[in-house]
Design brief:
161 residues; 5 helices; globular
């Protein structure tokens, strides 16, 4: 190839290279907002942060249902939404509307209140599972209370401080 031909190809190659680099950077930036499989990063972080104790599912990509892993039917109401798979069962505990997903996806938002609610559920469930038969009703009530606090937190930011 002559130097003249190479001189004409080089600018085109540089433009293509810059375009590819811009595309890669755009995908990296978009990935920060939309974790694996297009799911919001906040959803991915919460699932991973609790070691899979909570599972977030969606039918429409905007609103999420939050499920908690359970080991028995202890403390569950007869109309509880339970999904069982091979080795585990999950209980639907709350709905995370699109407004809450957006609120907690904002990098400036404080998710400490939401994390405290989820930690409270995990801890209350653990206490219930380990409670003696005499103490079990009180621990079941504490677990139900923590579930209610999460639901309120997801509805309004004021309830999640």
């Amino acid at each position: 190839m002559s130097d003249a031909a190479f001189g004409r190809i080089l600018p085109v190659a540089c433009v293509l290279h810059a375009s590819v680099l811009a595309l890669v950077l755009w995908f990296a930036c978009a990935s920060a907002q939309a974790g694996e499989g297009g799911r919001p990063t906040i959803v991915e972080d919460l699932e991973k942060g609790y070691g899979g104790f909570f599972v977030f599912t969606t039918a429409d990509g905007r609103n999420y249902d939050i499920f908690q892993r359970i080991e028995s039917s202890q403390g569950l109401s007869a109309d509880a939404n339970i999904v069982c798979m091979m080795n585990e069962c999950l209980l639907e505990i709350a709905a995370m509307p699109q407004s809450a997903v957006a609120r907690y996806s904002d990098e400036t938002s404080n998710i400490g209140g939401l994390r405290r609610r989820l930690s409270g559920i995990r801890d209350a469930y653990s206490a219930m599972r380990m409670a003696s038969p005499d103490n079990r009703p009180a621990t079941i009530d504490a677990w139900h209370e923590s579930l209610m606090r999460l639901t309120l937190c997801l509805k309004t930011a004021e309830e999640c401080r």
